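From the shared-data thread, chain only:
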Amino acid sequence: MAKSTMRTWLRNRMSNEELQDLVQHGAASGGVPGLTYYSETTKFYNRYEGEIWDELYSQTENYGESNIMAFMANWTTADQITDDATFKNYVAWWMVETVAMELLDAAGEDIW
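Structure, as tokens:
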């Protein structure tokens, strides 16, 4: 059986309309079933850690930052990352928001 990717996980759970809501309102608003509580976001992060770090590296380069921490320092929530659990939580939410935009773009849907 093929390993599930994070993109497949998200696509199987959300319609394009739900993805648009996610992009517009953010994952922190409770817009992703199964990613509300720290226990859920930590499990998600641990499962998709490799994909998340690949995306962090890619986005860091795309934004011209020198390293991932410099990239993340630009997030409005960066000052709320105080420990391992909050790090995994915010990174998980960032990842689903980023992938939601990617999926909508690939489907030819307006993001905003």
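The radius of gyration is 14 Å.
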